Amino acid sequence: MRDLELKKLQRALSDKPGYESKYFSGEKKRGKQTGKPKISDKQRRIDHLSSKQRHELIRLHADLDRVMVANSKVSRSAANKQTKRDSKKGNNGNLGVDGIWSSVTFERYKKSCRTFLKFCFENFDSIRSLRDIRPKMVGAYVNDLKARNCSAKTISAYVSAIEKMAESSVKAGIKSHAGLVNSKHREMVPTARKAERRRGREGGTGYSLREAQVIIKQAGKHYSI
């Protein structure tokens, strides 16, 4: 009995167990694995656009990527690498720093700006490049976010991303974007209530079950519970 169980175990752990099955042989996959799965037009929410419109939107996103990459300070670690903290030293003090210094921030800004550009492309005529983006479109987008009951934090994050896109565009030579996001747009952003920021504290909105599970999991990595 033990010999039979041992053979089954050895077969299961083998690269070529040779199971006699029509759909599953158990053999280890070899060679290059397939790349990232392709995202369909439906998943991108552009399946309602014509082929020409989809290509125009892709070119618009390519314009965005070009200026954002040019304004990015993200690079490999090095001994003398300049950091965002270094850029704040001296006369600059606590003022905002030009450029994008974090890969995570870069991806978040790019994703938010792509969503904004898609909104502009679908709701305004003759949007072919970044030069066609106007301040009124930013206001219309903020109103659209408010109409969809997005939180103040979400709306503020989108406006910040658009501001960084405008900064990148100006550096790329689109001078008209210097005033793309103005004080009126900032005034349109709702003020976040303290209760929304307090979350788990007394009087806050509390945590969802999923959020609590994530907190416990992360705490377990650093503390003995």
UniProtKB/TrEMBL annotation:
Entry keyword set: DNA-binding
Coiled-coil boundaries: none
Organism: Paenibacillus flagellatus
Single GO BP term: DNA integration
Region Disordered, residue ranges: 14-45, 73-94, 186-205
Gene Ontology MF: a single term: DNA binding
Keyword Cell membrane: no
Pfam families xref list: Phage_int_SAM_1
Keyword DNA-binding: yes
Domain Integrase SAM-like N-terminal: 102-164
InterPro entries: Integrase_recombinase_N, Integrase_SAM-like_N
Domain of life, per lineage: Bacteria
Name of the protein: Integrase SAM-like N-terminal domain-containing protein
